[in-house]
Every structure is written in C-alpha cells, then in structure tokens.
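Question thread 4412

I'm putting together a teaching handout and wanted feedback from people who do this every day. The idea is simple: show students a protein as raw sequence, then show them the structure tokens that encode its fold, then repeat with a second protein so they can compare. Below is the first pair exactly as I plan to print it.
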Amino acid sequence: MYRLIYAERSAAYSSRIILKEIGADYELIMTGIEDGGPRHPELMKLNPNGWVPVLIDGDMAIHEAAAIVIYLTDKHPECGLAPAPGDPARGPFLTWLVYMSNTVQTAYQLMYYPGRYCTGGEHTASVQQRSCERLRETWGYIDAALEGKTWFVGETFSAADIYLHMLTTWLSPDAGHPTIDEFPNAKRIADAVAKRPAVRLVHRL
C-alpha cells in the first residue's frame, strides 16, 4: 500500500488522481502547508523542506510532484499514463511535465509564497505582479504548443494532461491571474480531464 502525505489545493492533487487512475491501494496523510505553520511530523522527517506531496512506498519516500508522477506511471505501465522509455513521445512527455513543475508552479509560488523570493515589505507587491505576468507568459506558451493536439502528447491521454488540469485549478482571477478562457487549448484539455472518473472521485474525498 502506498501512503501519500498531502494538503488540499497543493501539488499533491496530481498524485491523488494518478493513484485513483492506477487503482492502487493507498492511505492519505493530511498536513498543513502554510508558511510558518505546523507540519505533520512524518512530513518533516521525510522532506525537511516541509513541502508536499511525499509518496511513501515501503521503505522509500519520494518528494517533488513531477518525480512522483514519473515514478507511479513507470511502476504501473499497464495503465498507459506515460510513454515508455524508448517511445518517441517520451521526450515531449518529460519535457512538458518538468516545465509545468519547474516553471509554471514557480510562477504560482511568486503569488502565494512571495516570501520565498523577496525580503518582504515593499518588494512583495512587485513579486506578486510578476507572478501574474509570468502566468500569462507560461500559459500562453503551453496553449500555443497544444494547438491541433487532442492531448498534451499528441493523441494519447497521459499524466501530463492530469498535471495540466491541476495547474488550471490554481488560476484565481481574484488574485489578478489570467483566466483559463484566455487559453482555449489548455481549457479544452483541462475540461476533458475533469470529466474522468478518477478526477471526480478525488473531488469527492
């Protein structure tokens, strides 16, 4: 049985959907993630950064959301959620997954965790403004790349589409973010992922 340390509205959302997609037995362990707030003791033991998700598989613990996605999809190839090593689609799959994790997620963090990127005070507003600009840039880049594609990696649904869907749920017009309607190709894929049974199950948990 897998164990997943998670928090609501965090990058653990993609891991939870994939665990549902592969039909795995798993246990959820909730923690807080507010800056300066308490963390679950097991989280701090396994990932001293205090960030989620953390996937526990036997004696091994994996953190970083994209790494967990790759680990689970490679361990359960029968579910078809990632191109296999050697498949020509493997490169684009990894490229986009890491881009979303490293670049798009960082753009969100500028807004939600500005203290990680500046010393506070008068700098906070500038960092958050840059967050909104950067989100428009990164989502525009993704949207253009999706033109004419059914899914992120061509014609086959994959965990990259799950990751995209997760990141669209973080867009907040109240925070000054662009709306998903500005990116019709990304919206089309995110809406299709939202209809999957695994996604609906996670929403009910």
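The second pair follows. I'd like the answer to focus on this one:
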Amino acid sequence: MHCWKILNIYKQYGLTRILLWAVIVFILTLCSSYLLFTFYYTKPFTDDYLWLFALLFIMMYPIHKGVHYLTLFDYRKDVNAQWEVIYDWLPTLHLRITEILPKNRYIITRLAPFIVINSSIILGMLVLPRFIHYGAILLAYHTAICVIDLLYVKNLMRSPKESQIEETKRGFEILVPPNVR
C-alpha cells in the first residue's frame, strides 16, 4: 500500500471557512425546514418542554460522537477518545482510530450521524408537530455539526474504490494498492 493523498480538512479549507460554511448551512437548514414543516402544520406551537429542548441541544454533539463510535464498535479496542479545547473555551472530542479502515466503512462512519440523527429529528417533527420550531433548530444545529463529516466524504468520494483510510498526526492518509495510481 502507498499513500495516494493526505487529507486534512482543517488545513485544506481552514477553520474559519469551515465555521462560515457551518453557519450558512445552519441558517439555510433552519429556514427551509421550518418553512417546509409549517406548511404541513399550521396550528400554534407550544413552548412546553423547553428544558428537554435545551438538554438535547447541549447533548447533540456527544450524541453525534456516540453514533460515530457505534459505527466503529467492532474496532472499539483501536478507538481512542481525546478531548481538545479550541479557541481557549470550546471543548471538542476527537475519536482517533489506530486501525486502517476500508474506504466504504470510513464513509459509513462519517455519514451515520447525519443520517440517523437527522432522520430521528425529522420523524419527531412529523410525529409531534407542536414542536416543529424545536425540531427545526435541532435539525439545523446538527446539520451544521455534520459539515466537517460531509467535507471528508466529499473528498473521499474521489479516491479509488480499493482505498484504505489511516489516521495519522498529519491527517487522514488515503492508502491504495501498488497497482493503483
């Protein structure tokens, strides 16, 4: 196996641009989901269970990381969790895997929180339409969290089919067999 490409989203795009995209995605998702669901449900909303909404909002990031971890459950011995603080106040959790993963497994791991959590939120908005305003905010917030995952998937889709992904200190190395260029 040889390295086809080193993928480091933060160096490739820059943290400022990623955060800007996340804010844009948040606003677009919030507006479009709220408008779409209010066509479906026109009765007044309720502010009951604000405490539950606040708890879900705070727990969204750990839940997101938990879904990532569940997709890597059979690699659990090779997954290291590490907290890092960025901007001197924002804690982030990094799941580092020391094992080489097939490209398709890595893509599934990256997309799983987006599919599972967003589907759950949309289902909740359909089942409990009185809380569409809460659901729209949670959906937009989680979609903004998923921007980095979607950028990784976008870059991985261009890699050869037989690729393997290895995490290093420089980023993610896309490894391919010697006969692939």
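Top answer:
Good format. For the second protein you could add a caption like this: The chain has six helices and six strands. The first strand starts at residue 2 and ends at 7.
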